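Before relying on records like the one below, remember that each one covers exactly one chain. Contacts with other chains, cofactors or solvent are not represented anywhere in the record.
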Amino acid sequence: MPHPQHLIRNFCIIAHIDHGKSTLAERLLQATGAMKAKEDKELEVLDSMDLERERGITIKAKAVSLNYAHSDGKTYQLNLIDTPGHVDFSYEVTRSLQACEGCLLVVDANQGVQAQTVANYLLADEQGLTIIPTINKIDLPNARPDEVCLEIEEALALDASMAVRASAKQGIGIQDILDAVVDRIPAPAGDREAATQALIFDAIYDDYRGIIIYARVVSGRLKKGDKIRMIRSGRTYEISDIGRLRPRMESSPDGLEAGEVGYISAAIKALTDVKVGDTITLEERQAPPLDGFREMKPMVYCGLYPSGETTYDQLREAVEKLSLNDASFRWAPESGGALGHGFRCGFLGMLHMEICQERLEREHDLDMVQTAPTVTYRVNLRGPDPITGKPRIIEITTPGELPKDGYDSIEEPVVDINFFVPAERIGTVMQLVTDRRGEFLKQDYIGTQRCKLTYRMPLAEVIYDLFDKLKSVTQGYGTMDYEFSGFQVAELVRVDILVHNFPCDALAFICHKTNSEYRGRQIIKNLKEEIPKHLFEVALQAAIGTRVIARETIKSYGKNVTAKCYGGDISRKRKLLEKQKEGKKRMKMVGNVEVPQAAFMAVLKNRAEDN
């Protein structure tokens, strides 16, 4: 029998990175009997991806259904979604929140309110969710739960008097959390007799079963054998399997009804037929679509090209499957000249880019070349549109798309960025941000020990290694969170890298004019170390238009053509040397310089480290 709707609770766990979300989620699973106490405490059920275990972070949101016997004698179905905490995966959090009525806002009893704590709280508050503050890690010797409660009230304007105090590691307060979920979070609304509407909040690809959908049933009901329609694609399928995640897939003979969260399998093979945020309805009794998710706009772009034994078709199949499982990943085919055919891919940030690349390599066994990351620029073309009379604006994601001339200005994306830092480190953080063209907006104190600094700065200065540098200057205690603010005009130039007088498109970049000379010099220095010597001199140049701003020369191989001359007239040696000189001059005019892919990779990697 389906679970009574008033005994269902849908909730998720949100927090800053490393505040104990996944550990707390697994304690809840153990307390409700969904999993046994682990002997190997390093093995996490929800963080099942190899990358998640290695890095100790959550990348994908996970859903699981729990049965909890409350002290009032009733058994409740708790549908829990564990979410990531890193800024690059905030889209996963947004999708999870839309499938819930409440959430646990977990705060570290030592670190207190951090950047993503604030960002995730605002997302939950915007959705109108019931928020339960939870102070985790109270068993630590330097825990300060009372001060952290004050921080929650000051920074979030959230009543912390009813905050649950717990230690996921020691299993303290787990019962209190379960009771708070049942008592404070409302039961899901939705008429089970109405036309069926189910929101797709995630999907995975299975080699044997095709696409498996994770959905929240908002109204009506779904069961095995039903003919369903995807409203966006208009395609119809028959449900072959439906059930709940406990945390493994468990078929439900009665299907799913309004208020429940589960999985749907319908032998869907076409990756384009499923879109996260789409609405599922019944073919025989169709309902209007639900409000989907706000489309996330990629902030960082790079090119991915096949190398080694990997083919273009293999890479295409892999990026299609990744885009199904990661709705914030964008891709489009492009040609990279020397690198061949590949894909222009968009990501939410540098960590997101790194994780996607590693997932493609591991899950699909691919060899790839990745070009340097760039952001989206807006170019204001000269003169109005001849038809409409409006200003002409184009968006570019690669330096090659920038017109040679014929434009008035270039606009770069800027973000409003919040830094949460120890009070004694304010000066060093300000210096770090000012050096990267940051514009100070405001400063607020949270308690007596910590400060919130707000800056506006170009996204191009943020994406490379600002987070790592922040951790370095604050001894690991600083955190940051940013949101897109808009575009602003800047003095930007395109720097071309020329190898033997031929431009190398894969290494061209756009940067601020004041940094162009330094960055151009660094790239050609790195390139000089990677390109092997030839039989003639090879010139490496960095240029803005026709003006060369930096140059390095790779010396030619030296062959001693006079080695066989033992004494004799000096004119014979001169003749041999002149002949060698003429040969090298002729070779320099017609010779081609091979730039190995390893050189591209090394230079692109060094470029990221230099910024």
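The longest helix spans residues 570-590.
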